[in-house]
Amino acid sequence: MNITTFKSEPVAIKAWAEKRYIYLELTDGRIFGFPADRFRILSQATEEQLKAVACELNGYALRWEELDEDLTVSGIVAGQFQLPLSKQAA
Fold it and tell me: Which one-letter DSSP state was computed for residue 25?
């Protein structure tokens, strides 16, 4: 039996913020969420600033224009965060 597998980078088709969490809908149907407080700049942002997230570069990156912050979707999905998980969230 031949099984062909392929890996592709995750691509976001939608991004939004709720209660200090950022959510991504990926092209493969997954919904992925992470706490904004895992990134230095986002941890200092207001809820309104977090809601201004946009998918950029054909879904390979997230952008917050007012904050001048960019994150790669593949890095987020791989768990490459800048700050540790807070003890409250653990």
Answer: E
Residue 18's φ and ψ, nearest 5 degrees, are -145, 125
Q: What predicted TM-score, i.e. pTM, was given to this entire model?
A: 0.85
Tokens of 68: 């001048």
81, 34 contact by CB (below 8 A): yes
1: in domain: no
Q: What is the span of the domain harbouring residue 61?
A: 12-77
Closest CA to 63 of 25, 80, 72, 82: 72
Q: What is the mean pLDDT of the chain?
A: 92
Q: What are phi and psi of 68, to 5 degrees?
A: 55, 50
Q: How many domains does the chain have?
A: 1
Question: Residue 22: in which H helix or E strand, if any?
Answer: strand 21-26
